[in-house]
Amino acid sequence: MLHKTIHLQENATLVTYILECSEAVNQGKKRPAVLICPGGGYARLSVREAEPIAIQMNAMGFHAFILHYSCAPAVFPIPQLEAAKAMILIREQANEWNILEDKVVIAGFSAGGHLAASIGTFWNQKFLYQALEVEPEKIRPDGMILCYPVITSGKYAHRDSFRNLLGEQDKEQELLEQTSLEKQVTKETPKTFLWHTYEDGSVPLENTLLFASALRACQVPMEVHIYPRGGHGIALANEETQSTGDKNTIIPEAQNWIRMAGEWIRNL
What we know:
The chain has helices at residues 51-59, 78-92, 111-122, 126-129, 159-166, 173-178, 206-217, 257-266, and strands spanning 5-9, 12-17, 31-37, 63-68, 99-109, 143-147, 191-197, 222-227. An 8-stranded mixed β-sheet has the order 1-2-4-3-5-6-7-8, with helices on both faces. β1 and β2 form a beta hairpin. Helices cover 28% and strands 20% of the residues. By secondary structure, the protein is of the alpha/beta class. The relative contact order is 0.14.
């Protein structure tokens, strides 16, 4: 495995989990790649939504990358520029890292889901591709996996995420509208896999439903799973990502989401 940390810019790094080939096994085999954006309300990064996810992606035969992006006091669009830069690097190194160029996926959890969905909706906006001096297609993911994502800045918003992302700008209506991602979906938005729990008390289920409705209106293919049990931030929903001393983060019926996401990636 090629496991290293790459510095993208001052406060952002990309950690690689690249499956290497050998002469004896899978020489030259190209694989899908998944860029993982952990959650944490744009205030911190959750370790439970980082390496454990990358390892599971590796186990399914995918290359994985974890983006350690800037959080508060960094404000929009700094995390978005960092995620875009990570996507560009992965695409530029596709041949060296044996990546299938039509299966580069971005995955995000909670506020990391907002970041991932930002790349899926903003990839062709000038504030990203002009700032990074690239063709917008180098930023565009081939698919998005959004896990209990923060999406809307409206009635069902996770307010702390938007306060952290926007800082003193959080009262500017134009920015609140721009970062309410159900309003940014177009027919150019990538295919999307979403999942959420009905009982999520931090980021309401409506975030996923609003985004799914917007995708449907634009005829963007999607797969959506809603689990009846489980609070926010359950990650793999098993013992590996159990919150310390909290058995409520072990939800057996929700543990199949990553297997289904893997099949979805293969079928992109």
